Queue: 2 jobs
Job 1
Amino acid sequence: MKISKLVGKRVKETPNNATIKSHILLLRAGYIKQVGAGIFSLLPPAQRVSLKIQKIIREEMNKIGGQEVLFPVVMPRELWDMSGRYSSIKEEMVRFKDRTGHDMLLGMTHEEAAVHMMMNTATSHEDLPVMIYQIQTKFRDEARPRGGLIRVREFTMKDAYSFHTSQEDLDVYYKKVYDTYIRIYKRLGFKNFVVVEGDNGIMGGKVSHEYMEVTDVGEDSLVICPKCGYSSNMEVAVSVKDENDHTIAGEKEEVFTGNAHTIEEVCKFLEIDAKHTAKAVCYKTATDGKLVIAFLRGDHEINESKLAKQVKSELEAVDVEEEFSLPAGNIGMLNLNVPEGSHIFFDLSLKGLENLVTGANKKDFHIKNVSMTRDLPDVNYVDISLVKQGEKCVRCGETLNLTRGIEIGNIFQLGTKYTKAMGMKVNMPDGSAKEPIMGCYGIGIGRCLASIVEEKADDKGLIWPMTIAPWQVYLCPLRLDNENVSAIADELYKKMEEAGMEVLFDDRNVSAGIKLTDSELMGMPIRVVISPKTLSNGTAEVTMRGNEKEPLFIPIGELIPELKVMIQDEIDDIEEYANGKNN
Amino acid sequence: MKISKLVGKRVKETPNNATIKSHILLLRAGYIKQVGAGIFSLLPPAQRVSLKIQKIIREEMNKIGGQEVLFPVVMPRELWDMSGRYSSIKEEMVRFKDRTGHDMLLGMTHEEAAVHMMMNTATSHEDLPVMIYQIQTKFRDEARPRGGLIRVREFTMKDAYSFHTSQEDLDVYYKKVYDTYIRIYKRLGFKNFVVVEGDNGIMGGKVSHEYMEVTDVGEDSLVICPKCGYSSNMEVAVSVKDENDHTIAGEKEEVFTGNAHTIEEVCKFLEIDAKHTAKAVCYKTATDGKLVIAFLRGDHEINESKLAKQVKSELEAVDVEEEFSLPAGNIGMLNLNVPEGSHIFFDLSLKGLENLVTGANKKDFHIKNVSMTRDLPDVNYVDISLVKQGEKCVRCGETLNLTRGIEIGNIFQLGTKYTKAMGMKVNMPDGSAKEPIMGCYGIGIGRCLASIVEEKADDKGLIWPMTIAPWQVYLCPLRLDNENVSAIADELYKKMEEAGMEVLFDDRNVSAGIKLTDSELMGMPIRVVISPKTLSNGTAEVTMRGNEKEPLFIPIGELIPELKVMIQDEIDDIEEYANGKNN
């Protein structure tokens, strides 16, 4: 490809509204262009990366028996009514009426379509296990698209669905996909990723894992044990809570706290530490508007995902004074007067504590010296707080690391939620009919592309792993007005293409500065510079992107075979890493 | 691939609602499954064909400098407001509001997105010509989806857009794409297709061509000259009208025709031939409701596409009595009293005619002996009738053939409609700024898949060309309960895969009848049968699909190399045909 004809311009300036590395660089290097909020076009270099990512994913999915199919983007309501998700998924799902007035939707995920395909297709236990997958466009109407390709509304996704006759069979296959995903990310060039226990969200089911690229710009909070490997999304992470005061409580005592409402204010007013308080966090259920109050130690934060699971409903903000006549800022664990059907929870962080300050359920007052064991002996403690910095691993006791990550893939055990809802059964050897147990497995292509940029790129530009680089070589002749340079550049370009290399040929007659800067911005793994100076020694200057300080000077006559070796070495390194030989 | 695990079941029965060959066979052979009206899932065999079609298209588009990109399926209204198509395209385009209330749409085509990508990307004449293309999902809310994959609402399409600084440059490139398309269809295995002049419809622009698979089940009417190669979509086809009565007219005379209103009734009543009448066909314009009357010879039919172009509006049905107080069935060319702004047209078929019968514009009466030259000397004749069987080629005078076809692709010269509307300009050498001239080029993947079935399949099932077959070989051991058969089959399967062949292995222990029938239904190009009988001679029976009557018996030891030669020969034949060496 000649850069003079390549669609996409490089720009120097950091684009407006772009704050994270991958977003800035992909825009600046001419890889993507925004069409709307969370909607992008891919220019040729990005589409080349995307196709290479897809190819690797296909190879790996096929290796574990995956059969590629294609589901529709647009589906009729009926299919999603069967699973109940037509109504349970809110505004994230796009709905519209077709010209006949029929309710249609844009698929956010394809469990229903997968079961629809397998119904009457797999009818016997002998037809299972089976895994089908597709690579297709999805649209999710995200409330807050951000970060370029990191969180978009429209994206290309590989989604896969497996069907099994027993939990054991699913477990075996799930592990296979688990390992295959690791191989996929390694082949794409990822090094800095972890697998964490995940939250199942709208998918249903119990076991799930998320593949997380560890990076400060990630939206997800992760909890990782550096010793035993325990790793989890914060939404479902557990921990050993830190030590606290378990000395016997004094007498309960109501104290005036006036306008001190937040934990900070109360602690300041009473001159105590937040860990000696029990705070109340209030919501209402999205399903039926019931009051939800969670009590937790004052220095802990509520984990809304866990709390939502306790009440089996999304949570909404509540104005407790307006809606439930409760004294906001003074709500406490004792003498709490709430309507029937309200949900009251006590977090594990409170277990066994003494001498706590809590609201008095009375304007301007708190109560001191509350004892969980003496005053609330019958409480059922649940885990509804976020893991805190400094807490210990429940498995090995090591201090946990808190970090952030981008979810680059996920795998779920779905159980029989969809097959049962849609009435899919297979005949078993004993003559009975059984709903197959499903797994589902997703990878967002564009998010992988952006995440690898987050991991690799430097302050000069993109750095692509050899396996997914748009082109392997950036051929960069300087001084194309020099006839010798021009003739040799043309010949090298021709020979490189004939040798099967993927070459981006900078055929512009512009300054060396522009060319070298662009080569770094665009990120091809190998750069070949020829100039009157290098040619005076009969060589080309070859550098690896990210390692420009260590050039090799290779005689022109040996260049093509040398480059072939370098390319293959890079690929071999990545493949060996993926095969676990150098882990 | 082992057929026991292949997703998709073969069925004997013709499915309900399926009437055409490709629809019936693709359903019966387990290639597709319907999800909604005009919406299908592709099962693994169909997806394999689709990917092979895409690969060939990519190769050919890349050869002529195409750069692959990806546009979004969902676009914001603003982009389509710029071209005016947000309002000009009617219910075929899906519109919806996103969660913020923003107007969004599903792309039916991507001219706007292509210009959006090129704006500020190609800024100089030196950046052009350039062609970008994508392979992506489209949704068009067709009023009458039908025929399986022939006319669907959701489909995968290759759409390409080229940008040029002059009409001459577009003409040169357009011809390149024209030829490339012929190569593509030939490589896909098509033999029975023609290129016809097309109608530009909603795309704008002037020159266009349609690639038509010639088949009785096609929705389009085609006009083809068997001598000089003139070929056209009926919508825009022209012809030399047949001879007629040009003798001098007698005196005009009003005659009572009573309830005779249609041309057939009037002719019967007056005992004359339809070619001696002038009939009126009435519409109103969709844009502003003006009356449109087209007069044409009684034995000709109106060409609504041509008429719509004359009035620059879609046409709607009209009740002339109710809405315009005209005597339906008695409307004629003389003394016609219509509101100002009405459109009156006279078809070429009436030119120079004498002694015509036409309505008297008076209930129950017609007029005889009307002379076009004497009574309507100032008429401007236009071409608004369909080409009729028996009419002659305007180029060479040969009698034209009328036939039907499926549109498998199209190419358009768009002019500057979109670049002008969206304000895209490039700097020219003389310092001026110019709107680039565009071409656009489409191929529907699924429709190609179904059309090749229409061309090739026989009454037993599908027949795939080697270049796009899901698998090249159907390995069909009979009597798998026989240990010798079973062992040799397993070994052959392994060796074939090792040799890089694509093999569908019928590993089921079912009757020979089921296996042979399924092999014919599924349509792989080569079938290899082994059985106790063939093995007793040390051979396998090899047949080509569609030519089962001429089996080859090949010694097992020579089978693999022989099959490799057969596969390569088939591919070579198709490639040679595509390269024009055996045309």
Job 2
Amino acid sequence: MSAASTFPSIPTAVIGASGYSGEVLMRLLIGHPAADVVCVTSRQHAGKPIDEIFPRFCGASKVSGLNFSDATVDAVVSARATCAFLALPHGVAAEFAEPLVAQGIRVIDLSADFRLRDPAVYEDFYGHVHPAPELLAQAVYGLPEWRSAEIRSAQLVASPGCYPTSILLPLLPLLKARLVDPESIAVSSMSGASGAGKKADTALLFAEVNESLRAYGAPKHRHLSEIEQELSFAAALPVRISFVPHLLPVTAGIASTIFCEPSTGVSMDRLADEVNHVLRDAYSQAPFVRLRGLGGFPDTKHVVGTNFIDIGWVLDNRTGRLILMSAEDNLGKGAASQAVQSYNLMHALPETTGLMNF
Amino acid sequence: MSAASTFPSIPTAVIGASGYSGEVLMRLLIGHPAADVVCVTSRQHAGKPIDEIFPRFCGASKVSGLNFSDATVDAVVSARATCAFLALPHGVAAEFAEPLVAQGIRVIDLSADFRLRDPAVYEDFYGHVHPAPELLAQAVYGLPEWRSAEIRSAQLVASPGCYPTSILLPLLPLLKARLVDPESIAVSSMSGASGAGKKADTALLFAEVNESLRAYGAPKHRHLSEIEQELSFAAALPVRISFVPHLLPVTAGIASTIFCEPSTGVSMDRLADEVNHVLRDAYSQAPFVRLRGLGGFPDTKHVVGTNFIDIGWVLDNRTGRLILMSAEDNLGKGAASQAVQSYNLMHALPETTGLMNF
Amino acid sequence: MSAASTFPSIPTAVIGASGYSGEVLMRLLIGHPAADVVCVTSRQHAGKPIDEIFPRFCGASKVSGLNFSDATVDAVVSARATCAFLALPHGVAAEFAEPLVAQGIRVIDLSADFRLRDPAVYEDFYGHVHPAPELLAQAVYGLPEWRSAEIRSAQLVASPGCYPTSILLPLLPLLKARLVDPESIAVSSMSGASGAGKKADTALLFAEVNESLRAYGAPKHRHLSEIEQELSFAAALPVRISFVPHLLPVTAGIASTIFCEPSTGVSMDRLADEVNHVLRDAYSQAPFVRLRGLGGFPDTKHVVGTNFIDIGWVLDNRTGRLILMSAEDNLGKGAASQAVQSYNLMHALPETTGLMNF
Amino acid sequence: MSAASTFPSIPTAVIGASGYSGEVLMRLLIGHPAADVVCVTSRQHAGKPIDEIFPRFCGASKVSGLNFSDATVDAVVSARATCAFLALPHGVAAEFAEPLVAQGIRVIDLSADFRLRDPAVYEDFYGHVHPAPELLAQAVYGLPEWRSAEIRSAQLVASPGCYPTSILLPLLPLLKARLVDPESIAVSSMSGASGAGKKADTALLFAEVNESLRAYGAPKHRHLSEIEQELSFAAALPVRISFVPHLLPVTAGIASTIFCEPSTGVSMDRLADEVNHVLRDAYSQAPFVRLRGLGGFPDTKHVVGTNFIDIGWVLDNRTGRLILMSAEDNLGKGAASQAVQSYNLMHALPETTGLMNF
């Protein structure tokens, strides 16, 4: 006989569940042994049964008979949720975060609204004044591998963006260890179409995205702001990188390829050794970071549907560069499952609860 | 606090784990609370770590440190497995089934070797003499919605084929109720490329299957033999149907569209009522059959990765036909997860154990 | 030295060029030796260079410097076009067809507006009163393999729908020859996503259509109206068929699988012979119908980008059915290139002019 | 009346026509007004009709009745071909090139055998001794935008690789003009699956490549050898670059994203101006290079099926980098159509003959 653990029951709300991140979040909460889904909101679908809008969830007892609520703070409060996920567009999320936090409800925000410490950077990258700058000080950037202690006690977690997660996890340990020259970093990322959201936009139609490979958004994609903020913290000096995202015909997945050079004085031989040590040390206790090692080429197909990020690297001795490669599910470790990882930490659950999917 | 159940620990073997069904089976057993995976064989990968061949399974404690064994009966026996899944090609499976059954090990065979009662039909459709006809009498056709009692006590379960499952579940209740004319049935099925197996065949290359829609295998696909066998049992008379499978550019999923006519004397109005009643009665206790009802169009994207089959139908009053439509995962309800459903029944576990994925 | 032919120069307009059929039509006219593209309209893109909206056409001298006009009859008249293609939605096309025809401009309409002889059938299937019933008498259903003489002299050609073309070409000769029982026909068609048009509809997003197989539109898809009209003409009696279209993750292509039974008194042996003879006779002079013969399985990948339709068939002796299979490009033989085939006939050009792409 | 040109008739052979490049080459020659296809070889398909193996070519009078020959030099000679395309694997091509050149037949080789001037570099990158080093001196690297004069008179053209074309065309003018620091170049390229060839390899199956994004081949992909050779010629000094190719789920297309820095002393402002001028000057007479300009993001879907390469760029002022992006068809400008472009030059035809497809 194998004895299973017992779990608390956490009254949980999902605000804005009709997009792609919201759907994956719902799927994870349905399978999460501690999540009691008490409120699911959607302006568009208010009043309709959840399993009518998401036929995939038919038969899930946790949402059976549950209807979408209108997206209001009252709906969350009256459902007695103690924790709310926000899967809302930038700008809209802050409107909910403020009153929810004020009511003592813990908030995990999947939007960009609380990821940046400096409201001026937000304004620069997002094109409008920050909607709730007074909350920025208490918001925790929800990268569990780097801020688990702060996340555990946070009232407001700003869950990282999809591209940032795929770039930060390989680079942060190396910048912190001063192995890599912060001025040398150039990143090419490739994302599946779900990353663009569930928008009625002809540019995202199947017949447009299929059989198409294209860059977009360079040189100043919005995600650069949080990537550089976190890299700068790690390097303890301002870091600027080049970043080119690409849109590709897969539903889910992000692969990032990162070119960088060793810091002055670090030889390629030393780099080879230390990259290995530094990454292994950094993630020895991180259940969702899988190091493929030198010569390991991560493939998104091995991580889609999971909370894993796979990281490999090669040394380009001919040019003196280190090339890091990562693969994650943009809706998983890049969004919904990473948010659940924070949720686990915030509720003193094992970090892997409900997330060990393969 | 929600209390979780406790489960027995079943020493379980997977023979032939390197194909697509084998991989999904491994994924399900990794997440199955009662399965103790004691032996995983692969001729091709013998001696190699499972998570090296399947990078997706890195981090799964249940297979961590486990290597592929060579595909031998001894490997299974010496690992003390009490139940073995066979994910082997037709013809090869029987070679393992015989000695395993003789050793008292319960066998769930995903191949076609034991699906047909009549070895002459096997020879007709598979082109060679049946390799173990003496076992046919005890083999149970493992469609849990129709033979759960026999499966519970079976020593040898022949898990159904992917196309058959998608065609039988909609049709069996209607034929049994004599609502549908057995001579009127024509089926067009569409399958993802994983259905063709992991074979080094240029016809299955990405650049061949992508952007391609094509029929194949008509008019006498091998799966017809088991489809007609089971339809004939239900109708209590010999049934012959037309069946055209198509290969389509998705990885997984089968959609079947079934044209049929009411039995003589059954009006379209009566048919409309009775199809609904008969199907709902037939599957009221079946957790994995989701009836989408009249006007419901099942979509494989809502079932891929699960053990569900979704069934909808329309009445074509203009021509006097009933059109049934089903969607399933060819590797799930059409193969691996259906086999696990039998495994649950055989071990007196709740039928849904390890299978309520959404 | 190979001497090339000389061609007339036909001032040609394309009305509504921004959709998928319009784009393929533009591509064909750019390569057509007789087409002088004098006017290209688009409400949405009026005033913009054609090669800015369609980057694919950059470098095509025929459209270089040409801007989209607003979609007005005056634009067509003042450009002195003598022939206009209408690539407009149903209902809108008729608004243009009437004044253009009145001005003596020959019209090839890719919409459904003039395909049906009976305005009552139009109203039944399209849900609104026919916008220009007085033109129906003179409109010619533009299936060149069956109405070339009428097309040659037509003022108004109603180019057939994509599904209808794929179903009519295999069936018409057999119904005309009374080989096939008109009551026995059931069709399963599979179409690429471009068939749904370039609409800002979340159901058509890449992340929705990809990895999805699904039926839709049954039992009374709009295209049934023209399919049954033409089948009835051929059979000289009213024909009703069952038809289930499916939406699949390819950009372009339609595959149709047609189940039918021989007419009373026609044995399977005789059917085998006569299907072959009748189809070969019917299409011996048809350059774009490629008969793959008995046992030939057409694949859309061999016809996408061309004006060909490939047709194969099998005899299902076990059930007494004939199964016909066809493959075409839904935007090619199912729309734009078939319209150009009519254009060639209308201008006394070789039928294959500008269309022998492989 | 538009008068069409007359063309010579060039007896042309295709050696090794059964792969993906061979198939596109056949398609182009079928539509090429001067190509008389007298010999098509394939070891695998010798004796079979071409349009049986390539159903797409059914109805093409140029190959109607033509069978594959066995792949021998005699077959080419006895067919009186004066020009032969080699679409063979590396190493095998040289075996044919030598005797054909000796017989006075002009050769356009699509393999890598004659792309490198230095046999030692060939051995380093391809892992075996060069099979015909004595021919290297006369072989011309067939990049028509840079070597048209040499190609015109060449006896042996080594047509460039797919990745190299996509990287060289954007970079060569900038290196030649000394605008870009040769030590600063890092390239991320993305290729469709046809680039891996028509090989019976399970890693290339649809179910493996679909829904997968992955890097491979870094840091020393074979194509680096010719890329660096040509970049070094342009820069007049040895150039080494970092290069990471990725395999993506499209059939055809390559997108390359190139990071580089201005040469010492070149300001970002000056760079902005000069990149534009230098690229426009370099390609003002190049019909197949389409400059999308600053802020232009090329998309493979606009070039697949054509001989165009689209090039755009952005200036990353924040990091001081220039980012160039290109898109081409890996089987077109990256292989078969570029070879035909050389063929046109070699035969004093307009460079665009048979290649102005959109």
